[in-house]
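REQUEST FORM: STRUCTURE PREDICTION
Request ID: SP-0412
Submitted by: Lab K.M.
Chain count: 1
Length (residues): 298
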Amino acid sequence: MDFFANPSVHDPYVFIQEARLGGNWLRVKAFMSDLTTFEETLIDSPAEKLLQHLEKELNPVKSYKMVVLKSLLALGGAEWKVTDIATLFLNYYLENRIRLADWDELARAEDPTQYSLNHVVRHLIAMPLDRMADSVEGFFELDKPLKIFRLRKDLHSWWMGLEFRKLIADRADFALARYFYHKDKASSLVENSRGFAVEIPYATRTGSGYSELIRKVIASEPNSNIWEFDFQTKGYSGNMNLEIYKEQKFVAWTHTRYDDISRFPARIKAAATALFNERQLGEFNIAARDTRIIIKRV
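STATUS: Completed
RESULT:
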């Protein structure tokens, strides 16, 4: 794909988002009369639906599901022990150290090479495997007691075919390349007079922890332009402006580079998440000192 040669110019994802082109890459190719003989056999089949699901599902906030897919293809078959997936899943990040920081828990380990396989299994069951099995169509199934992950039975014959596996691999590789391209771009934006601008994903847990506590403060005075919160314990101290407009991510202006966005201050991220979830959109200044933060609308 041209995307791999120059991702800043070409992004095929825009085509599959265009409903009139069919909503998936096979339909886009059909629209352009560019289907292979094998791809023609997939139209209107369960295999096409699976490919479309992966294309739409693999627009992620983490790299986990793509790495799981690559692990499944490497293992072969259509039913897998979670421990076997875990081994290849962990090895991917250990062998691609530049991408290891995307897995927060592994990045924090003192020695990632000694990271417990049991921890990997728990991570897989709690996050990517559970999410992959939780689709309306039920393409995958997760047996948590037995720690078994399997493909839906009517898809086995397609999945086992070499040509179809290549199509799955292409989509996993593309999604990984696109994900890390956008992540790297977000973590290295140009500095200007306001400092460095970096895009940070909102916290995933909005109903617990600091995000929930700050939300309660904001919700108690929704028409205010200033809110204060005391964490009771000392933490990050600093001052930065936030732009909160978009879904999934906010923009932080800071005089510290965050090449690894997993190191971004958790308290500032919690404040941004609380503001967004209380629909307080706009620009804000966050001042953190000792145990307290002060949030002001700019």
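NOTES: DSSP finds 14 helices and ten strands in the chain.
Reviewed by: T.R.
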